[in-house]
Amino acid sequence: MGFLQKDSDFSSGEHYSVVSAECYFQGTLSVQGSLRVDGTLEGSVDNARHVIVGKDGKVIGDVSAQVVVCGGAIEGNVCAEMLEVLAPACIKGDIRAKKMIVEEGGRIDGQCVIGAAEEASSEEKTDEE
Q: Which of 13, 21, 66, 74 is most exposed by smallest CB count within 10 Å?
């Protein structure tokens, strides 16, 4: 069952939101389900389950979600459990993720912290001692 197919099971409680190619949205989106961006979203995305930025999609702002798949452009910080950067996507901002996949041709301009948050905090404590 693919994203936004007619046979999607909406009874499962999964909610899908779309910023289509013709759309420009400005403001903060607090999404409980999944979001697909094929247009331009200027603002932050908070609390989403999945955020998919299409090849022509652009997010200007921070993105926080369980899973982020970027096929277009994100200009802002990304915080995710899993991040996938497709070719020729570009992320300009800092990344904090437990897992990350970067396809050949995908670009990142910023700092990356990959791994569990607990591991990073325990390393910081060890450095301070």
A: 13
**In contact, 16 and 34? CB cutoff 8 Å:** yes
Q: For residues 108 and 129, give the distance between their C-alpha atoms in angstroms, rounded to a whole number.
A: 33
Starting at the earlier edge strand, list the strands of the sheet with 73-75.
24-26, 40-42, 58-60, 73-75, 90-92, 107-109
pLDDT tens column, 11-33: 455 678 999 999 999 999 888 89
Strand segments (E) across 34-128: 34-37, 40-42, 45-53, 58-60, 63-70, 73-75, 78-85, 90-92, 95-102, 107-109, 112-114
What's this model's pTM, rounded to 2 decimal places?
0.80
First to last CA, the chain: 51
Amino acid identity, residue 97? A
* Structural domain boundaries in the chain: 14-128
